[in-house]
Amino acid sequence: xxxxxxxxxxxxxxxxxxxxxxxxxxxxxxxxxxxxxxxxxxxxxxxxxxxxxxxxxxxxxxxxxxxxxxxxxxxxxxxxxxxxxxxxxxxxxxxxxxxxxxxx
Length: 104
Known about the structure:
The protein has five helices and four strands; from the N terminus they run αβααβαββα. The chain is mainly alpha-helical. The chain has one domain: Winged helix-like DNA-binding domain superfamily/Winged helix DNA-binding domain (Arc Repressor Mutant, subunit A, Orthogonal Bundle), CATH 1.10.10. A two-stranded parallel sheet has the order 1-2. A two-stranded antiparallel ribbon has the order 3-4. Strand 3 and strand 4 form a beta hairpin. The model has no long low-confidence stretch (mean pLDDT 94).
């Protein structure tokens, strides 16, 4: 799992300030579209919350995590809002804030 988690952390480090990615998107970019749950596990045990911005990852509907491991849902919302991401009723507008990496 170590190598898998490192691939996930590498992707999450790339999510720019003011943007979010979904668990499935991170999984796909890390090499396996079936890893969405694994992404959740990896982020829950994030060894470096300051260097790996796991708060920028939301579910496929844009919902923040009610079980955010580093201070709960309200902390995740506060971290996103501090970067200019509007969170309404615990949801982020993916059309506006979802990261669209250049895959070239």
